[in-house]
Design goal:
The complex is a heterodimer. Chain A is an all-beta fold. Chain A has no helices and 11 strands. In chain A, strands 2, 4, 5, 6, 9, 10 and 11 form a 7-stranded mixed β-sheet that branches. A 4-stranded antiparallel β-sheet of chain A has the order 1-3-8-7, with no helix packed on it. In chain A, strand 5 (about 45-50) and strand 6 (about 55) form a beta hairpin. In chain B, the strands form 2 sheets. In chain B, strands 2, 4, 5, 9, 10 and 11 form a 6-stranded mixed β-sheet that branches. In chain B, strands 1-3-8-7-6 form a 5-stranded antiparallel β-sheet, with no helix packed on it. Classes of the chains: A mainly beta, B mainly beta. At the A-B interface, strand 5 and strand 10 of A face strand 5, strand 9 and strand 10 of B.
Chain lengths: ~120, ~110
Amino acid sequence: NAGVMQNPRHLVRRRGQEARLRCSPMKGHSHVYWYRQLPEEGLKFMVYLQKENIIDESGMPKERFSAEFPKEGPSILRIQQVVRGDSAAYFCASSPRGGGASSGNTIYFGEGSWLTVV
Amino acid sequence: KNEVEQSPQNLTAQEGEFITINCSYSVGISALHWLQQHPGGGIVSLFMLSSGKKKHGRLIATINIQEKHSSLHITASHPRDSAVYICAVPPGGADGLTFGKGTHLIIQP
């Protein structure tokens, strides 16, 4: 499967623990987006990364959340000291070219990672 | 900031009916995305269009850039079309997409 791969698909964490969500973009894609879908709400943009660079993190909460996309390996969305309000589906998407969503690139989504904080 | 409005929010129809879902946005864009999300599932990109009309199987998407409006049509609808359909546009001034709240479509046999 050459699509966008996310893991884990489901993750349960206790309050205060750390959650790490991984995303491997489609082969040949070097642009990754993370989106969050809270229960009963629409999708919200979090962060846009290229290899080794954060391009736009305007949608990221100021604290506890971080993202990276290293030269080798998947993109990681890290949530420290999780709280119940972090329970959501986290979607990763990738695109083959730069310019962000405004450029009109087709964006390919992963299956999502469902985080439950208990 | 681009505001996205979808209608209807919920739609139940009988198998075979012609379905239309509408999307309006407030800020001019270069391209609009239609996405499909099945219950508990991932997101599939259906269309990305910047003008005119695109067709893929029984799905047709149209966009009117001047009126800032797009429609998604499903012909000969089938129960497997039941899903949430989401319209998304560039937000203006940022790189991610801004999403509509989605249209929950149920096609009954």
